[in-house]
Amino acid sequence: MNKSILLTILFAIVIFQIANEKIPINDGAIGDAAFYREVAASFLDTLDSEQGYNFLQIQRILPFAIINGVYVILGFEMDNNALMSGMLILNLLMLTLATFWYFSLTKKLRLTKNMEALGFILIFFNFPVLKDFWYNPFTTDMTALAFGIGQINYFVRYEKSKLLLLSLLGAFVWPTTFLIGIILLILPNKALEIYQGERVKSFFPIISTAFIIAIATALSFYLGRTDASFSQTEIIFHKISLICLTPFLMYLMINNPINWEKSIPIMFKSINGSRILGFSATFFGMLFILFLISTNNANLSSYTWAKGFWDQNLRFPLDFLGAHTVYFGVLFPAIIAFLPRVIKAMAKLGTGFTFALLIIAGLTIHPESRLITPFIPFFVLLLLKALRRYSLSTMDLYFAFGLNLILSTFYLQINSADFISKLGNAEALPMMYYGHFGNHFNIIAYLIAIALFAGLTFLSFQAKNKYTREKDV
């Protein structure tokens, strides 16, 4: 599939969405979007006032600060419609930059046309890019996705100064972008040890799985995940989710081709004191700068934030797998099918990339898929490297393209009288929109999503079995 055709389809759909529906109340902004629209209108004034912004808000301030600065310099009106137009234009520019970085990356990787097209489909043809960024534009998600592609591009091209600059800017776009960028910059790229031949049997899968489950259980008790604020049904589902997480983690560990017994000493040996000092000074220095800029932290509680974050986890068994499938399409089912090769590709990218992916993997268990938006390019890179020795058929490429287009639901209208009436009712969130967000799943949405994941995973395994493996990645 030619890249010019893919670009034409992508931007045709996006232009259609820009002129199409928006959030139907409050001039197109609710919740956090309404707050960030206000940031775009009064950033400079608020920053200089006693009100200011808190530590979390300042880490998503850059796109709206840009809008405010441009409008002030050019003397534009700052009514809601004008700010909406500015945000849509900024998102469109970021999408254009993201496609430029993507093709720069694929040129460096020397991918075949079909593999290049597959990566493009997995990153850009999904619900957030084709629908959500334009339906609800007052977010940093599009900028974060573009920065994520940029980080991967400069990491692979070994352009450290550009990666550093992008990561510094990312500190004001997405809370975890700077951390991941600094890990890629400072930690070494020495490849980890891979088992040659059959994996040696050990207790590592059992020990590591038990350790993760123990941490998750401890967090649930410490953060009150089973206290009286939850119904008995919610508590039961949470406990079942913890139980179901165990075999999933065991599957990951057993299908892991990394020889951790040899790799862990390599990782610790390559991370010397100067690297640790450099990482600590850079990371905590940036946190200190962010803290100094934020002047409204009186009501910010780390415990309250952690509890709110954890309360959305493990609501239904493996709900994050269904959520990511509905949100991003066939990417995660394909990763599950080609898991050993994906992990092997990760190990060959080195210690720093492996550390970064382990942190991202922790976020992936959260069912709100938008939290991992900046890191989708990381997963796509690994899948492309895992598949590069396969001869991807054009028919399978079109099949993946069609599935992602269908799952994106870009063609469906969200706004209706029923939807508008339910928007303000937290007990009856309409599935037409919130069915794409795993943290809002009800039992019906969960069952549909997990069935989609199971079906697409089965198809991915069928596709895997169809190809003849030439040699290891």
Automatic annotation (TrEMBL):
Top-level taxon: Bacteria
Transmembrane helix found in the keyword field: yes
Ranges that cross the membrane: 82-105, 117-135, 163-187, 203-223, 235-254, 275-293, 320-339, 346-365, 371-388, 395-414, 441-461
Keywords associated with the record: Membrane, Transmembrane, Transmembrane helix
Name of the protein this chain belongs to: Uncharacterized protein
Organism (species): Belliella aquatica
